[in-house]
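Incident review: delayed structure delivery

Summary: a single-chain prediction request sat in the queue longer than the usual turnaround. Root cause was a stuck worker, restarted by the on-call engineer. No data loss occurred. The affected request and its eventual output are reproduced below so the record is complete for anyone auditing the incident later.

Affected input:
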Amino acid sequence: MNTLSLYRRRLIPDECILLKDDIILDADDQHIVTKWNTLRPKKLLHHGDSCYYLDKGVKVSRFYTEDNYLICWYCDIVSYEWKEEKTALWSTDLLLDVLVYPDGSYKLLDMDELAEAHAGKLISDGLLQTSLLTANRLLNEIYDNKFHEIYTAVFDNYTTYF
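Output delivered after worker restart:
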């Protein structure tokens, strides 16, 4: 995976962006770890790192302020598609997101967007089902206090400081 290109595809708005500035720290058959600066500057969010869990349909990112304060773990529910003989990975955002905060609280986001996308035929029945089932599994892992064990241990080997 030496020449791996990562793409983020969104349904709302309809866009596909090459993540050309993301730095790939590690990649194997089960995950890809990257670090990055935000594409669009935000009030708090400055940079972070992400782990693409290729077998789980989840991309977990650590969001940091400019002074390296952890804001949250941001969990995108996604579908992955390899292109160009496994040299390009498209990560399609399936709209549902789960935020897990350092204090252990969590929040499910964008159920309304998922419903609107389905009503507008922007997402298929199959991807709607995938999004809901994946979010359900992730939430159950959070309820069972397994989130850190399953999703954040991989980050222990990396820092996000640029």
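Verification: The chain has a mean pLDDT of 93.
Action items: add queue-age alerting; document worker restart procedure.
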